[in-house]
Amino acid sequence: MKINSPLEAYKYLPQTNCGECGEPTCMAFASKLIDRSGKTTDCPPLIKEKKFAKKLAELDKLLAPEIREVAIGVGDRVAKIGGDDVLYRHKLTFFNKTKMFFDVTDTMEEAALVERVKKITDYKKFYVGRNLLLDGVAIRAASNDPAKFAAAVKKVIESTELPVILCSFNPAVLKAGLEVAKDKNPLLYAANKDNWKEVGELALEYKVPVVVSAFNDLDALKSLAKTFAEAGIKDIVLDPGTYPTGKGLKDTFTNFLKIRRAGIMGDTEIAYPIMAMPLTAWMSGISDPISASYWETVLASVFTIRYGDIMLLHSMDPYATMPEVHLAETIYTDPRSPVAVDSKMYKVGTPDENSPVLFTTNFALTYYTVESDLASNGINCWLLAVNTDGIGVEASVAGGQLTADKVKDAFEKSGFDLKKDVTHNTVITPGLAARLQGDLEDKLGTKVLVGPMDSGRLPGFMEKNWPPKQ
Amino acid sequence: MAKKVKLSEMTDMFKDVEILSLEGVTIEGDIELDLSGLGGGFDPMLAAILGQENAVLAQHFARLAGIFGVPVGFGGAPAAGASAAAPAVSPALAAPKFKDLIPSKFDFSNIEEWTTQIQEVPIGNTSADGGSRGKRVVVGGEKALPFFPDAPMPNRNQVTIDVFDMRIGLAKAVKENYDEVMDSPGEWAKKNVEKFNADMITIHLISTDPLVKDTPAKEAAKTVEEVLQAVDVPIAIGGSGNPQKDPLVLAKAAEVAEGERCLLASASLNLDYAAIAEAALKYDHDVLSWTQLDMNAQKELNRKLMKQCNVPRDRIIMDPTTAALGYGLDYAYTNMERIRLAALMGDEELTFPMSSGTTNAWGARESWMVSSPLKEDSDWGPREYRGPIWEIVTGLSLAIAGNDLFMMMHPTSVAVLKHITQTLFGTIEAEPIDLANWIGSGV
After folding, report:
1. Which residue from B97, B337, B441 is facing A283, i.e. has the nearest CB?
2. Suppose B154 and one of A330, A353, A440, B141 were both cysteines; which one would form an S-S bond, judging by CB atoms 3.0 to 4.6 Å apart?
3. Following CA atoms B396, B400, B406, B407 in sequence, which dihedral angle do they give, to the nearest 10 degrees?
4. CB contact under 8 A, B373 and A295
5. Distance in angstroms (rounded) separating the CA atoms of residues A461 and A455
6. B400 at A interface, C-beta within 8 A
7. Is the N-terminal amide bond of A318 cis, ω within 30° of 0?
8. Could you write out the DSSP letters of every residue in A255-297?
């Protein structure tokens, strides 16, 4: 983004304060443009009225992110990558979470291929009110045979809505794959110093995004990107090579840093999304699959944090994929979003006067974890979020933000009356706040049950302990 | 350097670990297994095997036996015909659009605002320094973000492995490694150093908590002496987290460890930090300055330690709090990255090395729970593999954010974290790998 104050964006707006965008003033809308929570398309006059066309074009240019945004695939599961404006997430936020593509080869048996694609498509891990998913399929032309590759690509796109990457350095093979997948906007991997003319031509002919590849040679990489850009190819992804071990890995890390820093600092010739290939861990001679999976996860972690926008991965073992999807979520979560939920009494399901009453902290992660554990297991109950300044249970008990007085105060403020709104006069405390039990019984005048150390064990706890024995 | 391990050596290796049973697996001959690519401290065989249940182990080992006959080389065996077929480019594809590559030179400049070096802090006194440690650990000294090309990191990351002064509840995958030494802090410490390659030991005096055993400070100090005698690496001394008792416990521990330059963990704003600082100065120790995910509180506490308590700069390490992957790591990560960036740009209240309670990763249910409590989730897989990688990813993320010292628990996690951080640090060699044929390689 070339501008950083709302005033600069305001100059290009209609300045009528019409309110059609939902903001009271054009200045308020301008600040949304600057923090990237709003888009120029949200301003109807700017889009519709011809007299603003020139200003709109100029403004869009100024607001364009430093790193080009590239879309792969079509439909709901389109994978957008790049689009970043900063080197550190706290400076704004990172956009377009790192996309995880898992590999298949065109030499796999059909049944195994379809099963793996289905596994990639169906993967989900619940996290704070949503599911973390995998993003796409990378099809490797291991056969180097155009017909075989085309058949595998066909099978994959019949089996999933996920975006695909066509992987071969052989233009004839890529073309065969493109013929089958041309309506799916696949990513083409890859143009290198040997095949760039042919692959570049394919990218232009089929209007698809393309990877330029130069292993550990940033001059060559930039040269390829520049040549493609001048020929009219906009959607470029960079592959500087991912060496999995030793000095090669250190060089790779350094290359990623250098490319992204140059791009954010304004070198438009190299300001494209970067591809990392943690699957090269499997080429490093680690003979046992668990260690190889671990090392692949380690590489994925390094390049999720430092500027990998799209990744090619191999291991589908849960102990590899789960930390990978969690870390991408971690690094790309908007740091400007609130840490805490409102401190009040929440209903989980349809609680009544016989339903259990629990409390937890108002730290968003804690609250949503407890809430989903209860809801997913069909437990109807009352759940009080106590204001602990957005700190989790264990830390807030240690730090004095979660005390019997705080809990009492939260009950009073919520308007929930333990004596009238429920019949059992019982409160369940988090297991990690067990030491508050005595104090709570005194302050609240109720019976206090100590719940499990982890809310994942609440279903079993309820079976044993609810309703409470008189 | 490719590291070849002979089967006979492997068996010895496993014998040392004392958790392996080779029943049901017959291995003949002296076949070499290639472990290249991960030389140095990381032993993938060992790493994969630690912390597993026997059943899984036997199965795993049988699988390994199956591959013994197949030498594993670099790049894997290419799929049949993959590399043989030359790219068949039809001339019709060659395009008039493109003529020649446009030459371009990649330029890169260092960050000019990084003007200030992080303080170097030594832990542990050798005989030359008036103590009895066999070596000294130095953390800090960076002039750039970790592993960045702007300026080389002067000191590598260090790992201190936890010891507790009583038997405590631990995740199963962790406990398996320590079960037989959990009643003896000295033996526990020894195992951490000798078997698990710990750079340091942290002795947590948790039994001193009035709600646990209320062990008197004087008695707890004996445990510290026991650990100091058992191992000669530098040590960190932790309390129970009870804000009333910790200053007393740490002061007594500091006294019996006089001259050893231990790291006292921790001074915080909600306890008598001055008492801990005083003990550190009087008996020659370092202070861990602990705050909860709050950069301003961290500045305040550091300022108080320096100005009110006169703690010299080379005796302060910060613990800005570690939250586990999936449980607030985003805050912990960014808090550390901001602290480090502010320090490099000259904020003298933050120019200290950082320490992470990476063990907190074991609080994440993903690391210890048998399976997901949510029916909708994809299979979580075996927990004995989930836990260590959770600790690794939590620690590694913070290493990249700027953390220097890691307090950890699982031996595999320690091995892998050391291997990746030392690779990025630049001290681990591996044979070069040709990526050109990755598409057709037998991965």
Report:
1. B441
2. B141
3. -60
4. no
5. 9
6. yes
7. no
8. HHHHHHHHHHTT-GGG-S-BEE-GGGGGGTT--SHHHHHHHHH
Please give, rounded to a whole number of angstroms, the shortest distance from the CA of B259 to a CA of chain A. Answer: 31
Q: Which residue of A has its CA nearest to B441?
A: A142
Task: Convert the pLDDT of each residue in B56-97 to its tens digit.
Answer: 333 333 333 333 322 222 233 333 333 334 444 444 444 467
d(CA A309, CA A239): 11
Q: Which CATH architecture has domain A69-332?
A: Alpha-Beta Barrel (3.20)
What is the maximal distance between C-alpha atoms in chain B? 87
Pick the CATH number of A6-63 from 3.40.120.10, 3.40.190.10, 3.90.1480.10, 1.10.15.40: 1.10.15.40
pLDDT (0 to 100) of residue B43: 39
The reply to whether A345-465 shares the fold of A69-332 is no
Whether B430 sits inside 8 A of A246 (CB atoms) is yes
With an 8 Å Cβ cutoff, is A319 touching chain B? yes
Question: How much is the pLDDT for A470?
Answer: 66
pLDDT for position A465: 93
The answer to whether residue B89 neighbours chain A at the CB level (below 8 Å) is: yes
Q: Report the gap between the CA of B127 and the closest CA in chain A (Å).
A: 35
Closest-CA residue of chain B to A242: B435
> A 221-250 residues with CB below 8 A of B?
221-227, 230-232, 241-250
pLDDT of residue B4: 39
Per CB-CB distance under 8 Å, the chain A contacts of B103 are: 219, 223
DSSP string, A166-198: EE-S-HHHHHHHHHHHGGG-PEEEEE-TTTHHH
Total beta-carbon pairs less than 8 A apart between chain A and chain B? 328
Which CATH number is correct for A345-465, 3.40.50.11600, 4.10.520.10, 3.40.47.40, 3.40.390.10?
A: 3.40.50.11600
Would residue B434 count as lying in a domain? no
Q: What is the number of structural domains in chain B?
A: 2
Interface contact B381-A317, CB threshold 8 A = yes
The residue range of the domain holding B20 is 4-67
Token pair 């993903």: residue:
B366
Strands (E), A121-248: 125-127, 130-132, 136-140, 164-167, 187-191, 210-213, 236-239
Would you list the domain boundaries of chain A? 6-63, 69-332, 345-465
This complex has an ipTM of 0.86
Q: Are B423 and A257 inside 8 Å of each other by CB?
A: no
Mutant choice from A217, A230, A258, A286 vs B, greatest count of B C-beta within 10 A: A286
> Cβ B416–A294 below 8 Å, yes or no?
yes
Q: Which of B332, B426, B308 is nearest to B40 (CA)?
A: B426
B61 and B147 part of one domain: no
Using a CB–CB cutoff of 8 Å, tell me whether A90 touches chain B.
yes
In this structure, what DSSP letter does residue A82 have? Answer: E
Last residue of a domain, one of B67, B84, B99: B67
Test A320 with B38 for CB contact under 8 angstroms: no
One-letter identity of residue B315: R
CA distance A130 to chain B (A): 11
Query: pLDDT truncated to tens, each residue of chain A (470 aa)?
Result: 889 899 999 999 999 999 999 999 999 999 999 999 899 999 999 999 999 999 999 999 999 999 999 999 999 999 999 999 999 999 999 999 999 999 999 999 999 999 999 999 999 998 877 899 999 999 999 999 999 999 999 999 999 999 999 999 999 999 999 999 999 999 999 999 999 999 999 999 999 999 999 999 999 999 999 999 999 999 999 999 999 999 999 999 999 999 999 999 999 999 999 999 999 999 999 989 999 999 999 999 999 999 999 999 999 999 999 999 999 999 999 888 767 889 999 999 999 999 999 999 998 888 988 998 898 889 999 999 999 988 889 888 888 899 999 999 999 999 999 999 999 999 999 999 999 999 999 999 999 999 998 898 899 999 999 999 86
Tell whether B217 and B294 lie within a shared domain.
yes
Residue A394 touches partner B, C-beta closer than 8 Å: yes
